[in-house]
């Protein structure tokens, strides 16, 4: 008799716990994502940049700004580009110091998805033109940038994700060969205002 009562109690507890589990799962599906507008993307950002070139990988935090249809880097990351052109580590540091901050504007078109919970960005990168000083001479350098995939701005947490690639570098009219493309991955950028 005692075994039967214990069995009924255990069965009742088991049934109640299953019902609570199902009820809690049903409530989790109802997370509301606030609607996003194209204007929501405008502002200042701080982003994690992962730069990959062949076997080399580097990470750092960069700042940029988005306004209307342009993403602006007040200081575009140049170390890998200058290293590809100059090669000598000491001369690379001297060239970077002499060049200072290089601003780069990245144009894009934006569209809100059908559910209005994220914005899709289609980038239209322009070539980056640089004058890299080496041994008292400026090397005219043209970096061909491309965006193979679209960027996304999430309305849930106001974060942005995108990627760029330096596919080709030309120095004084001659393409660097061999050259490993430089990939600039921005997996998580947060809006600071």
UniProtKB/TrEMBL annotation:
This is DUF4840 domain-containing protein. Keywords: Membrane, Transmembrane, Transmembrane helix. It comes from Chryseobacterium oranimense. The keyword Transmembrane applies. The lineage of its organism: Bacteria, Pseudomonadati, Bacteroidota, Flavobacteriia, Flavobacteriales. Pfam families: DUF4840. InterPro entries: DUF4840. The chain crosses the membrane at residues 5-23.
């Amino acid at each position: 008799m005692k075994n039967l009562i214990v069995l009924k109690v255990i069965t009742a507890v088991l049934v109640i716990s299953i019902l609570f589990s199902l009820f809690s799962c049903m409530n989790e599906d109802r997370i509301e994502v606030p609607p996003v507008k194209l204007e929501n993307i405008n502002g200042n950002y701080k982003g994690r940049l992962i730069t990959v070139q062949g076997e080399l990988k580097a990470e750092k935090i960069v700042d940029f700004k988005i306004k209307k249809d342009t993403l602006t880097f007040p200081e575009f990351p140049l170390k890998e580009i200058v290293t590809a052109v100059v090669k000598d580590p000491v001369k690379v540091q001297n060239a970077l110091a002499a060049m200072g901050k290089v601003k780069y504007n990245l144009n894009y078109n934006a569209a809100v998805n059908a559910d209005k919970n994220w914005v899709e960005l289609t980038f239209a990168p322009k070539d980056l033109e640089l004058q890299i000083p080496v041994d008292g001479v400026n090397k005219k350098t043209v970096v061909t940038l491309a965006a193979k995939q679209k960027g996304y701005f999430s309305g849930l947490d106001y974060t942005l994700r995108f990627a760029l690639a330096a596919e080709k570098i030309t120095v004084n009219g001659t393409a660097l060969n061999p050259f490993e493309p430089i990939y600039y991955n921005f997996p998580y950028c947060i809006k600071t205002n």
